[in-house]
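Repro case for the chain-ordering regression, as requested:
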Amino acid sequence: MNTWQKLKQQPKLFKRYFVREQIFAAIREFFAKKQTHEVEVPLLAPSLPAESYLEVFETTLLDRHRHPKRAFLTTSPEMFLKKLLVAGIGSCFSLTKSFRNTEGESNTHNPEFTILEWYEVGKDYKDVMKTTEELVCYIYDKLFSSSVARSDHNRHTELVSASKKSSHIRSNSKLILNYQNQVIDLTPPWERISMTEAFAKYARIDLEKLLDLKSLQTVVRKKGYQVGEGETWEELFHQIYLNEVVPQFSKNRPTIIFDYPVQLAALAAKPKASDPRFVERFEVYIGGIELADCCTELTQVDEQQKRFQKELTLRKKLGKKDYPVDWEFIEALKLGLPSCAGIALGVDRLVMLMTNVSRIQDTLFFPSEEMWQGLS
Amino acid sequence: MSKITTADFQKGMFIEFKSEPHQIVEFQHVNPGKGSAFVRTKVKSLKTGHVQEFTYKSGESAEQLDINTREMQYLYKEVEKYVFMDNESYEQFTVLAQVLGHYADFLKENEIYQLLVYGEDVIGVRFPKKVRLKVIETEDAVKGNTVSGATKEAKLETGVMIQVPLFIKVGDVVGVDPELAEYVDRVNQ
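-- result from build under test --
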Protein backbone atom coordinates (compact mmCIF):
# COMPACT_ATOMS: atom_id res chain seq x y z
CA MET A 1 0.00 0.00 0.00
CA ASN A 2 1.32 3.45 -0.85
CA THR A 3 1.41 6.35 1.57
CA TRP A 4 -1.66 8.16 0.20
CA GLN A 5 -3.66 4.96 0.46
CA LYS A 6 -2.51 4.44 4.04
CA LEU A 7 -3.54 8.02 4.80
CA LYS A 8 -7.02 7.34 3.45
CA GLN A 9 -7.28 4.37 5.80
CA GLN A 10 -5.73 6.10 8.80
CA PRO A 11 -6.35 9.86 8.55
CA LYS A 12 -4.68 10.45 11.89
CA LEU A 13 -1.34 9.78 10.17
CA PHE A 14 -1.72 13.14 8.41
CA LYS A 15 -0.64 14.91 11.59
CA ARG A 16 2.91 13.63 11.29
CA TYR A 17 3.21 14.66 7.63
CA PHE A 18 1.94 18.17 8.40
CA VAL A 19 4.98 18.79 10.63
CA ARG A 20 6.91 19.44 7.41
CA GLU A 21 4.81 22.49 6.52
CA GLN A 22 5.17 23.84 10.06
CA ILE A 23 8.95 23.48 9.77
CA PHE A 24 8.96 25.27 6.40
CA ALA A 25 6.91 28.11 7.91
CA ALA A 26 9.23 28.33 10.93
CA ILE A 27 12.35 28.46 8.74
CA ARG A 28 10.93 31.31 6.63
CA GLU A 29 9.81 33.21 9.73
CA PHE A 30 13.23 32.77 11.34
CA PHE A 31 15.07 34.24 8.36
CA ALA A 32 12.50 36.96 7.79
CA LYS A 33 13.22 38.18 11.33
CA LYS A 34 16.88 38.32 10.41
CA GLN A 35 16.07 40.29 7.23
CA THR A 36 17.66 37.52 5.18
CA HIS A 37 16.41 37.32 1.60
CA GLU A 38 14.92 34.12 0.29
CA VAL A 39 16.18 33.16 -3.14
CA GLU A 40 14.33 30.88 -5.52
CA VAL A 41 16.97 28.99 -7.49
CA PRO A 42 16.63 26.99 -10.72
CA LEU A 43 16.29 23.24 -10.46
CA LEU A 44 17.34 22.82 -14.08
CA ALA A 45 20.74 24.13 -15.17
CA PRO A 46 23.17 23.82 -18.09
CA SER A 47 26.14 23.28 -15.78
CA LEU A 48 26.96 22.23 -12.23
CA PRO A 49 29.66 22.87 -9.64
CA ALA A 50 32.66 20.55 -9.89
CA GLU A 51 32.03 17.94 -7.25
CA SER A 52 33.87 14.69 -7.41
CA TYR A 53 31.58 12.21 -5.71
CA LEU A 54 28.08 13.32 -6.62
CA GLU A 55 26.25 11.45 -9.33
CA VAL A 56 23.86 13.62 -11.30
CA PHE A 57 20.58 13.51 -13.25
CA GLU A 58 20.76 14.57 -16.86
CA THR A 59 17.93 15.50 -19.17
CA THR A 60 17.57 17.39 -22.46
CA LEU A 61 16.35 20.89 -23.10
CA LEU A 62 14.83 21.45 -26.57
CA ASP A 63 14.43 24.80 -28.26
CA ARG A 64 11.57 25.51 -30.68
CA HIS A 65 13.51 23.81 -33.48
CA ARG A 66 13.92 20.84 -31.17
CA HIS A 67 17.67 21.35 -31.03
CA PRO A 68 18.84 19.46 -27.97
CA LYS A 69 20.89 21.00 -25.18
CA ARG A 70 22.22 19.13 -22.17
CA ALA A 71 20.41 20.00 -18.95
CA PHE A 72 20.99 18.86 -15.38
CA LEU A 73 18.99 18.76 -12.18
CA THR A 74 20.88 20.86 -9.66
CA THR A 75 22.79 19.14 -6.85
CA SER A 76 22.63 22.18 -4.55
CA PRO A 77 21.74 25.90 -4.68
CA GLU A 78 25.37 26.88 -3.96
CA MET A 79 26.47 28.38 -7.27
CA PHE A 80 23.36 30.54 -7.63
CA LEU A 81 23.50 31.88 -4.09
CA LYS A 82 27.20 32.69 -4.38
CA LYS A 83 26.71 34.60 -7.63
CA LEU A 84 24.06 36.68 -5.87
CA LEU A 85 26.45 37.22 -2.96
CA VAL A 86 28.93 38.60 -5.48
CA ALA A 87 26.13 40.75 -6.89
CA GLY A 88 25.58 42.16 -3.42
CA ILE A 89 22.35 40.57 -2.17
CA GLY A 90 23.75 40.24 1.37
CA SER A 91 22.88 37.36 3.67
CA CYS A 92 20.44 35.04 1.91
CA PHE A 93 18.90 31.60 1.97
CA SER A 94 17.20 29.08 -0.26
CA LEU A 95 14.73 26.38 0.79
CA THR A 96 14.53 24.17 -2.24
CA LYS A 97 14.83 20.76 -3.82
CA SER A 98 18.16 19.27 -4.87
CA PHE A 99 18.88 16.08 -6.75
CA ARG A 100 21.57 13.46 -6.28
CA ASN A 101 21.67 10.16 -8.10
CA THR A 102 22.73 6.66 -6.97
CA GLU A 103 22.01 7.40 -3.32
CA GLY A 104 19.35 4.73 -2.92
CA GLU A 105 19.01 1.95 -0.36
CA SER A 106 19.21 4.32 2.55
CA ASN A 107 17.00 5.54 5.36
CA THR A 108 18.48 9.00 5.14
CA HIS A 109 18.56 9.64 1.39
CA ASN A 110 15.90 10.32 -1.21
CA PRO A 111 17.10 11.08 -4.77
CA GLU A 112 15.32 14.44 -4.60
CA PHE A 113 15.50 16.08 -1.22
CA THR A 114 14.80 19.38 0.45
CA ILE A 115 17.83 21.44 1.29
CA LEU A 116 18.09 24.63 3.31
CA GLU A 117 21.18 26.56 2.38
CA TRP A 118 22.05 29.92 3.84
CA TYR A 119 24.96 32.37 3.76
CA GLU A 120 25.89 34.92 6.38
CA VAL A 121 27.88 37.84 5.03
CA GLY A 122 30.75 39.08 7.19
CA LYS A 123 30.53 35.98 9.38
CA ASP A 124 32.52 32.77 9.79
CA TYR A 125 31.71 29.15 10.61
CA LYS A 126 31.66 29.78 14.37
CA ASP A 127 28.88 32.32 13.90
CA VAL A 128 26.94 29.84 11.78
CA MET A 129 27.22 27.23 14.56
CA LYS A 130 25.27 29.65 16.75
CA THR A 131 22.70 30.41 14.05
CA THR A 132 22.17 26.67 13.52
CA GLU A 133 21.52 26.11 17.21
CA GLU A 134 19.19 29.09 17.23
CA LEU A 135 17.28 27.88 14.15
CA VAL A 136 16.77 24.31 15.36
CA CYS A 137 15.59 25.61 18.74
CA TYR A 138 13.29 28.12 17.05
CA ILE A 139 11.71 25.31 15.03
CA TYR A 140 11.45 23.11 18.11
CA ASP A 141 9.73 25.90 19.98
CA LYS A 142 7.28 26.54 17.13
CA LEU A 143 6.36 22.87 16.98
CA PHE A 144 6.11 22.21 20.67
CA SER A 145 5.34 25.61 22.15
CA SER A 146 1.83 24.90 23.35
CA SER A 147 2.18 23.42 26.82
CA VAL A 148 0.10 20.44 25.80
CA ALA A 149 2.25 19.54 22.84
CA ARG A 150 5.37 20.15 24.86
CA SER A 151 4.53 18.02 27.83
CA ASP A 152 3.35 15.39 25.42
CA HIS A 153 6.69 15.48 23.69
CA ASN A 154 8.65 15.83 26.87
CA ARG A 155 7.49 13.07 29.05
CA HIS A 156 10.97 12.97 30.52
CA THR A 157 11.23 16.52 31.71
CA GLU A 158 9.71 18.87 34.12
CA LEU A 159 10.01 21.88 31.85
CA VAL A 160 6.78 23.53 30.58
CA SER A 161 7.11 27.12 31.51
CA ALA A 162 4.30 29.47 32.26
CA SER A 163 4.19 31.59 29.15
CA LYS A 164 2.77 29.67 26.26
CA LYS A 165 3.08 32.08 23.40
CA SER A 166 6.63 33.30 23.74
CA SER A 167 8.63 32.14 20.76
CA HIS A 168 12.13 32.61 22.14
CA ILE A 169 13.95 29.89 24.02
CA ARG A 170 13.39 30.14 27.72
CA SER A 171 16.56 29.93 29.75
CA ASN A 172 14.95 27.93 32.51
CA SER A 173 13.52 25.28 30.25
CA LYS A 174 15.32 22.47 28.53
CA LEU A 175 14.52 21.54 24.98
CA ILE A 176 14.13 17.81 25.09
CA LEU A 177 13.55 15.78 21.96
CA ASN A 178 12.61 12.14 22.16
CA TYR A 179 14.06 10.47 19.13
CA GLN A 180 14.10 6.70 18.54
CA ASN A 181 14.32 5.87 22.25
CA GLN A 182 17.02 8.48 22.83
CA VAL A 183 16.41 11.54 24.95
CA ILE A 184 18.22 14.40 23.22
CA ASP A 185 18.75 17.73 24.92
CA LEU A 186 18.74 20.40 22.19
CA THR A 187 19.46 23.22 24.61
CA PRO A 188 22.42 25.28 23.36
CA PRO A 189 25.33 25.34 23.43
CA TRP A 190 25.70 21.99 21.71
CA GLU A 191 28.77 19.88 22.17
CA ARG A 192 31.65 21.20 20.04
CA ILE A 193 34.57 18.91 19.32
CA SER A 194 37.35 19.35 16.78
CA MET A 195 38.22 16.55 14.36
CA THR A 196 41.62 16.13 16.05
CA GLU A 197 40.05 15.94 19.53
CA ALA A 198 37.44 13.47 18.31
CA PHE A 199 40.03 11.16 16.74
CA ALA A 200 42.09 11.23 19.94
CA LYS A 201 39.06 10.65 22.16
CA TYR A 202 37.23 7.96 20.19
CA ALA A 203 39.76 6.31 17.87
CA ARG A 204 42.80 6.90 20.11
CA ILE A 205 44.96 8.20 17.32
CA ASP A 206 46.71 11.48 16.67
CA LEU A 207 45.19 12.85 13.48
CA GLU A 208 47.85 15.54 13.17
CA LYS A 209 50.46 12.85 12.63
CA LEU A 210 48.37 11.10 9.98
CA LEU A 211 47.91 13.88 7.48
CA ASP A 212 50.01 12.14 4.82
CA LEU A 213 48.78 9.09 2.93
CA LYS A 214 51.55 6.76 4.05
CA SER A 215 51.13 7.27 7.80
CA LEU A 216 47.37 6.94 7.53
CA GLN A 217 47.66 3.74 5.46
CA THR A 218 49.84 2.20 8.16
CA VAL A 219 47.41 3.00 10.95
CA VAL A 220 44.33 1.93 8.99
CA ARG A 221 45.99 -1.39 8.16
CA LYS A 222 47.09 -1.87 11.76
CA LYS A 223 43.51 -1.38 12.87
CA GLY A 224 42.50 -4.26 10.60
CA TYR A 225 40.74 -2.42 7.76
CA GLN A 226 41.19 -3.26 4.11
CA VAL A 227 43.47 -0.88 2.27
CA GLY A 228 42.97 -1.13 -1.46
CA GLU A 229 45.31 0.04 -4.15
CA GLY A 230 44.88 3.64 -5.20
CA GLU A 231 42.72 4.42 -2.21
CA THR A 232 42.68 8.08 -1.36
CA TRP A 233 43.47 9.67 1.97
CA GLU A 234 39.82 10.68 2.18
CA GLU A 235 38.59 7.08 1.89
CA LEU A 236 40.97 5.80 4.54
CA PHE A 237 40.08 8.69 6.84
CA HIS A 238 36.38 7.91 6.51
CA GLN A 239 36.89 4.24 7.36
CA ILE A 240 38.04 5.25 10.81
CA TYR A 241 35.71 8.23 11.09
CA LEU A 242 32.57 6.25 10.22
CA ASN A 243 33.43 3.11 12.18
CA GLU A 244 35.03 4.53 15.28
CA VAL A 245 34.28 8.22 15.67
CA VAL A 246 30.72 8.95 14.50
CA PRO A 247 29.11 5.98 16.34
CA GLN A 248 30.52 7.34 19.61
CA PHE A 249 29.11 10.85 19.37
CA SER A 250 26.85 11.73 22.27
CA LYS A 251 23.43 10.10 22.01
CA ASN A 252 21.89 12.73 24.26
CA ARG A 253 23.18 15.98 22.78
CA PRO A 254 23.80 17.33 19.31
CA THR A 255 27.45 17.30 18.25
CA ILE A 256 29.22 19.92 16.19
CA ILE A 257 32.38 18.40 14.73
CA PHE A 258 34.69 21.09 13.34
CA ASP A 259 38.09 21.88 11.80
CA TYR A 260 38.41 19.29 9.05
CA PRO A 261 41.76 18.26 7.57
CA VAL A 262 42.42 20.20 4.38
CA GLN A 263 41.97 16.98 2.36
CA LEU A 264 38.27 17.31 3.25
CA ALA A 265 38.04 20.96 2.28
CA ALA A 266 35.46 19.99 -0.33
CA LEU A 267 34.78 22.66 -2.85
CA ALA A 268 34.95 25.78 -0.83
CA ALA A 269 36.08 25.55 2.80
CA LYS A 270 38.61 28.20 3.79
CA PRO A 271 41.88 27.10 5.42
CA LYS A 272 42.38 28.12 9.03
CA ALA A 273 44.68 31.11 9.29
CA SER A 274 46.34 29.63 12.40
CA ASP A 275 46.91 26.18 10.87
CA PRO A 276 46.37 25.74 7.13
CA ARG A 277 46.49 21.94 7.46
CA PHE A 278 42.88 22.29 8.58
CA VAL A 279 39.86 24.10 7.15
CA GLU A 280 37.02 26.01 8.74
CA ARG A 281 34.30 23.46 8.24
CA PHE A 282 31.83 21.77 10.58
CA GLU A 283 29.05 19.22 10.51
CA VAL A 284 26.16 18.75 12.89
CA TYR A 285 25.06 15.33 14.11
CA ILE A 286 21.84 14.85 16.05
CA GLY A 287 20.68 11.42 17.17
CA GLY A 288 23.20 9.77 14.83
CA ILE A 289 21.92 11.73 11.84
CA GLU A 290 24.24 13.97 9.84
CA LEU A 291 22.12 17.09 9.64
CA ALA A 292 24.19 19.95 8.25
CA ASP A 293 27.52 20.83 6.65
CA CYS A 294 29.05 24.30 6.90
CA CYS A 295 32.18 26.14 5.97
CA THR A 296 33.70 29.55 5.97
CA GLU A 297 33.75 30.20 2.26
CA LEU A 298 36.88 30.35 0.20
CA THR A 299 37.13 33.74 -1.49
CA GLN A 300 40.43 33.32 -3.33
CA VAL A 301 39.90 32.76 -7.04
CA ASP A 302 43.14 30.91 -7.79
CA GLU A 303 42.65 28.42 -4.96
CA GLN A 304 39.01 27.90 -5.97
CA GLN A 305 40.06 27.26 -9.54
CA LYS A 306 42.61 24.68 -8.36
CA ARG A 307 39.95 22.87 -6.33
CA PHE A 308 37.59 22.83 -9.30
CA GLN A 309 40.32 21.17 -11.37
CA LYS A 310 41.16 18.71 -8.62
CA GLU A 311 37.53 17.69 -8.21
CA LEU A 312 37.19 17.25 -11.97
CA THR A 313 40.30 15.08 -12.20
CA LEU A 314 39.00 12.91 -9.38
CA ARG A 315 35.58 12.68 -11.05
CA LYS A 316 37.19 11.45 -14.21
CA LYS A 317 39.24 8.90 -12.29
CA LEU A 318 36.11 7.64 -10.54
CA GLY A 319 34.34 7.24 -13.88
CA LYS A 320 31.46 9.54 -12.94
CA LYS A 321 29.19 11.11 -15.54
CA ASP A 322 30.96 13.92 -17.26
CA TYR A 323 29.12 17.26 -17.18
CA PRO A 324 29.81 20.91 -18.05
CA VAL A 325 31.18 22.79 -15.07
CA ASP A 326 29.91 26.19 -14.03
CA TRP A 327 32.98 28.27 -14.93
CA GLU A 328 30.89 31.42 -14.68
CA PHE A 329 31.15 30.88 -10.95
CA ILE A 330 34.92 31.35 -11.17
CA GLU A 331 34.31 34.51 -13.19
CA ALA A 332 31.99 35.70 -10.44
CA LEU A 333 34.63 35.06 -7.78
CA LYS A 334 37.04 37.26 -9.72
CA LEU A 335 34.70 40.16 -8.99
CA GLY A 336 34.97 39.38 -5.29
CA LEU A 337 32.88 37.14 -3.06
CA PRO A 338 32.31 38.97 0.22
CA SER A 339 33.73 37.11 3.22
CA CYS A 340 30.96 34.84 4.41
CA ALA A 341 30.08 31.43 5.75
CA GLY A 342 27.48 29.09 4.31
CA ILE A 343 25.69 25.95 5.39
CA ALA A 344 23.52 23.27 3.85
CA LEU A 345 20.98 21.54 6.07
CA GLY A 346 18.95 18.45 5.19
CA VAL A 347 15.39 19.50 5.88
CA ASP A 348 13.93 16.02 5.43
CA ARG A 349 16.30 14.78 8.13
CA LEU A 350 15.20 17.59 10.41
CA VAL A 351 11.61 16.46 9.80
CA MET A 352 12.69 12.91 10.73
CA LEU A 353 14.07 14.17 14.04
CA MET A 354 11.04 16.31 14.86
CA THR A 355 8.55 13.56 13.99
CA ASN A 356 10.55 10.74 15.57
CA VAL A 357 10.75 8.52 12.50
CA SER A 358 13.81 6.50 11.52
CA ARG A 359 13.23 6.55 7.77
CA ILE A 360 13.28 9.62 5.52
CA GLN A 361 10.62 7.85 3.46
CA ASP A 362 8.20 8.25 6.39
CA THR A 363 8.41 12.04 6.16
CA LEU A 364 7.38 12.14 2.49
CA PHE A 365 3.90 11.78 0.98
CA PHE A 366 5.51 10.32 -2.13
CA PRO A 367 8.88 8.71 -1.33
CA SER A 368 10.85 7.76 -4.44
CA GLU A 369 11.36 4.22 -3.19
CA GLU A 370 7.60 3.73 -3.18
CA MET A 371 7.02 5.24 -6.63
CA TRP A 372 9.67 3.11 -8.29
CA GLN A 373 8.90 -0.04 -6.37
CA GLY A 374 8.48 -3.06 -8.61
CA LEU A 375 9.69 -1.20 -11.70
CA SER A 376 12.82 -2.64 -13.20
CA MET B 1 34.19 -19.08 0.06
CA SER B 2 33.71 -16.71 -2.80
CA LYS B 3 34.74 -13.11 -3.12
CA ILE B 4 31.99 -10.55 -3.47
CA THR B 5 31.82 -6.77 -3.12
CA THR B 6 29.41 -4.53 -1.26
CA ALA B 7 27.49 -4.17 -4.53
CA ASP B 8 26.44 -7.82 -4.14
CA PHE B 9 25.18 -7.38 -0.58
CA GLN B 10 21.69 -8.62 0.15
CA LYS B 11 19.69 -8.90 3.31
CA GLY B 12 20.05 -12.39 4.74
CA MET B 13 23.32 -13.08 2.92
CA PHE B 14 26.01 -15.00 4.81
CA ILE B 15 29.47 -13.46 4.89
CA GLU B 16 32.68 -13.72 6.83
CA PHE B 17 33.25 -10.81 9.17
CA LYS B 18 36.36 -10.61 11.34
CA SER B 19 37.04 -14.28 10.47
CA GLU B 20 33.68 -15.40 11.85
CA PRO B 21 30.49 -16.40 10.03
CA HIS B 22 27.87 -13.65 10.01
CA GLN B 23 24.58 -12.87 8.36
CA ILE B 24 23.74 -9.47 6.88
CA VAL B 25 20.77 -8.07 8.75
CA GLU B 26 20.58 -4.79 6.84
CA PHE B 27 22.71 -2.33 4.96
CA GLN B 28 22.50 1.34 4.08
CA HIS B 29 24.13 3.70 1.69
CA VAL B 30 25.99 6.54 3.44
CA ASN B 31 28.09 9.25 1.98
CA PRO B 32 29.74 11.45 4.48
CA GLY B 33 29.73 15.17 3.72
CA LYS B 34 29.93 14.90 -0.06
CA GLY B 35 32.70 12.32 0.32
CA SER B 36 33.02 8.92 -1.30
CA ALA B 37 30.30 6.30 -0.84
CA PHE B 38 30.14 3.84 2.04
CA VAL B 39 27.81 1.03 3.02
CA ARG B 40 26.78 0.89 6.66
CA THR B 41 26.08 -2.77 7.38
CA LYS B 42 24.55 -4.59 10.32
CA VAL B 43 25.81 -8.14 10.69
CA LYS B 44 24.72 -10.87 13.08
CA SER B 45 27.14 -13.48 14.34
CA LEU B 46 26.01 -17.02 13.57
CA LYS B 47 27.83 -18.21 16.66
CA THR B 48 26.66 -15.76 19.29
CA GLY B 49 23.72 -13.95 17.69
CA HIS B 50 25.50 -10.69 18.55
CA VAL B 51 24.65 -7.89 16.12
CA GLN B 52 27.21 -5.26 15.24
CA GLU B 53 27.64 -2.47 12.75
CA PHE B 54 30.44 -2.02 10.26
CA THR B 55 30.81 0.57 7.54
CA TYR B 56 32.39 -0.75 4.37
CA LYS B 57 33.80 1.35 1.59
CA SER B 58 31.46 1.07 -1.36
CA GLY B 59 33.00 -1.60 -3.57
CA GLU B 60 35.08 -3.11 -0.77
CA SER B 61 35.34 -6.88 -0.98
CA ALA B 62 34.01 -9.47 1.44
CA GLU B 63 33.92 -13.26 1.54
CA GLN B 64 30.57 -14.91 1.00
CA LEU B 65 30.27 -18.16 2.93
CA ASP B 66 29.66 -21.42 1.13
CA ILE B 67 26.27 -22.44 2.34
CA ASN B 68 24.77 -25.79 1.37
CA THR B 69 21.05 -26.20 1.07
CA ARG B 70 20.07 -29.66 2.29
CA GLU B 71 16.62 -31.20 2.31
CA MET B 72 15.78 -32.63 5.71
CA GLN B 73 12.83 -34.19 7.38
CA TYR B 74 11.59 -32.63 10.60
CA LEU B 75 11.38 -35.34 13.28
CA TYR B 76 10.53 -33.91 16.69
CA LYS B 77 11.05 -31.11 19.16
CA GLU B 78 13.21 -31.17 22.24
CA VAL B 79 13.47 -28.32 24.73
CA GLU B 80 14.36 -25.25 22.65
CA LYS B 81 15.77 -27.55 19.97
CA TYR B 82 14.44 -29.15 16.85
CA VAL B 83 15.68 -32.41 15.37
CA PHE B 84 15.90 -32.96 11.61
CA MET B 85 17.20 -35.83 9.53
CA ASP B 86 18.89 -35.86 6.17
CA ASN B 87 17.01 -38.65 4.38
CA GLU B 88 19.93 -39.44 2.11
CA SER B 89 22.68 -39.77 4.69
CA TYR B 90 20.38 -40.50 7.67
CA GLU B 91 22.47 -37.94 9.54
CA GLN B 92 20.57 -36.14 12.28
CA PHE B 93 20.87 -32.43 12.96
CA THR B 94 19.83 -30.59 16.08
CA VAL B 95 18.77 -27.03 15.36
CA LEU B 96 18.51 -24.33 18.02
CA ALA B 97 15.19 -22.52 18.31
CA GLN B 98 16.89 -19.15 17.68
CA VAL B 99 18.07 -20.33 14.25
CA LEU B 100 14.52 -21.09 13.15
CA GLY B 101 12.95 -18.03 14.78
CA HIS B 102 9.20 -17.86 14.41
CA TYR B 103 9.32 -20.34 11.50
CA ALA B 104 9.43 -23.00 14.21
CA ASP B 105 5.73 -22.33 14.78
CA PHE B 106 4.96 -23.73 11.36
CA LEU B 107 7.06 -26.92 11.41
CA LYS B 108 5.04 -30.04 10.73
CA GLU B 109 6.42 -33.42 11.75
CA ASN B 110 7.72 -35.62 8.92
CA GLU B 111 7.58 -32.77 6.38
CA ILE B 112 10.68 -32.03 4.30
CA TYR B 113 12.31 -28.61 4.69
CA GLN B 114 15.30 -26.92 3.09
CA LEU B 115 17.93 -26.20 5.70
CA LEU B 116 20.99 -24.02 5.22
CA VAL B 117 24.13 -25.76 6.37
CA TYR B 118 27.50 -24.16 7.00
CA GLY B 119 30.23 -26.67 7.85
CA GLU B 120 28.56 -28.96 10.36
CA ASP B 121 25.95 -26.50 11.54
CA VAL B 122 22.45 -25.64 10.43
CA ILE B 123 22.42 -21.86 10.30
CA GLY B 124 19.04 -21.16 8.79
CA VAL B 125 15.99 -22.46 7.04
CA ARG B 126 14.57 -21.56 3.65
CA PHE B 127 10.87 -21.74 4.29
CA PRO B 128 8.33 -21.88 1.45
CA LYS B 129 6.35 -18.67 0.85
CA LYS B 130 3.19 -20.52 1.80
CA VAL B 131 2.62 -23.52 4.04
CA ARG B 132 -0.56 -25.61 4.24
CA LEU B 133 -1.83 -26.42 7.69
CA LYS B 134 -5.04 -27.88 9.07
CA VAL B 135 -7.28 -25.90 11.43
CA ILE B 136 -7.82 -27.90 14.62
CA GLU B 137 -9.69 -25.37 16.72
CA THR B 138 -11.82 -22.33 15.90
CA GLU B 139 -15.23 -20.95 16.83
CA ASP B 140 -18.11 -21.45 14.45
CA ALA B 141 -18.99 -18.40 12.41
CA VAL B 142 -21.68 -16.24 13.94
CA LYS B 143 -24.59 -15.94 11.50
CA GLY B 144 -25.32 -12.44 10.39
CA ASN B 145 -21.83 -11.17 11.02
CA THR B 146 -21.02 -10.00 7.53
CA VAL B 147 -18.57 -7.23 8.34
CA SER B 148 -16.08 -7.51 5.55
CA GLY B 149 -12.56 -8.25 6.70
CA ALA B 150 -13.70 -9.54 10.10
CA THR B 151 -11.48 -12.29 11.50
CA LYS B 152 -11.35 -14.78 14.36
CA GLU B 153 -8.64 -16.84 16.00
CA ALA B 154 -7.83 -20.33 14.82
CA LYS B 155 -5.42 -22.93 16.15
CA LEU B 156 -3.48 -24.80 13.50
CA GLU B 157 -2.17 -28.35 13.68
CA THR B 158 1.29 -27.15 14.70
CA GLY B 159 -0.25 -25.40 17.69
CA VAL B 160 0.21 -21.85 16.42
CA MET B 161 -2.70 -19.38 16.60
CA ILE B 162 -3.44 -17.13 13.63
CA GLN B 163 -6.26 -14.85 12.49
CA VAL B 164 -8.54 -16.34 9.83
CA PRO B 165 -11.72 -15.16 8.05
CA LEU B 166 -15.04 -16.09 9.66
CA PHE B 167 -15.95 -18.78 7.10
CA ILE B 168 -13.03 -21.06 8.07
CA LYS B 169 -14.13 -24.23 9.91
CA VAL B 170 -12.35 -26.90 11.94
CA GLY B 171 -10.82 -29.37 9.49
CA ASP B 172 -10.20 -26.82 6.75
CA VAL B 173 -6.69 -26.65 5.34
CA VAL B 174 -5.43 -23.08 5.08
CA GLY B 175 -2.49 -21.54 3.29
CA VAL B 176 -0.35 -19.40 5.61
CA ASP B 177 2.51 -17.02 4.93
CA PRO B 178 5.04 -18.17 7.53
CA GLU B 179 7.10 -15.00 7.29
CA LEU B 180 4.23 -12.75 8.35
CA ALA B 181 2.32 -15.50 10.20
CA GLU B 182 -0.71 -14.45 8.16
CA TYR B 183 -3.62 -16.33 6.58
CA VAL B 184 -3.41 -16.40 2.77
CA ASP B 185 -6.24 -18.59 1.50
CA ARG B 186 -8.36 -21.68 2.02
CA VAL B 187 -6.91 -24.67 0.23
CA ASN B 188 -9.47 -26.94 -1.41
CA GLN B 189 -8.83 -30.57 -0.63
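Ordering looks correct now. The radius of gyration of chain A is 22 Å.
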